[in-house]
Amino acid sequence: MELAVQKREKFGKATKKLREQGLIPAELYGKGVQNLHLSIPLKEFRKVLKQAGESTMINVVVSSPAGEEKRPAIIYDVITDPVSDEIIGADLYQVRLDEKVKIKIPLEFTGESQAVKNKNGILVKVMQELEVEALPADIPRSLVVDISKLEDIGNSVYVKDLKIGNGVKVSVGPESVVATVTAKMTEEQEAKLAAEVKPEEIKVETEEKKTERDAAKAAAEAPASSPASPAGRAGKPAAPAEAAKPAAGKPAPEKK
User: Fold this and answer.
1) CATH of the domain at 146
2) N or C terminus: fewer CB in 10 A for the chain?
3) Whether pLDDT at 244 is above 80
């Protein structure tokens, strides 16, 4: 899969004009790679993102006055507007085909659990993603979790039950639980639990929720920054330790 991009020479306020032209600013960087400032057609980027996700390797076709060159990369980060959720920028991480990377792969739950459908069970998704280590070409877009095997209360799907391709190493043990079915509380149990909850506990919980919302709002309004550990989010490759990084924890593009 290819993503056509162009080198760009304008930064800062000039990026606003890019977006008005249906383009988004982007950065390409990696281990031992000089940062490239790029512009990408938003429509094309959405198409590739939908098909490849943030874990599948793509070929970035860079156009410049000197010609074209292809670079293998992973969509490292998608920057969105905190209000409209519109894509306004992207970071691409160039990989080496002969070097393994750690990355978190999203889990895709399929099928229907009979324990949930007919036995009043509740499906608990213990994991939403799974960290793996593999060569870029072997990284799957997602891992399928078949919950149709959960026929009774207490049944679970384990990591060992997942179909993981050759050359892909999982960071957790084979007996780690991915999903399980628990019994739904009876009306008597719910009433008892409600009676045990004190008004002041509800107030504390409400204040904690408010604090969380305020923190999330502040984070959304702050300038986009990179996480300290790239492997800490789904679809984000862990940059090799030797790669030059700024204090934020990953190679930082110049200000868009």
Assistant:
1) 2.170.120.20
2) N
3) no
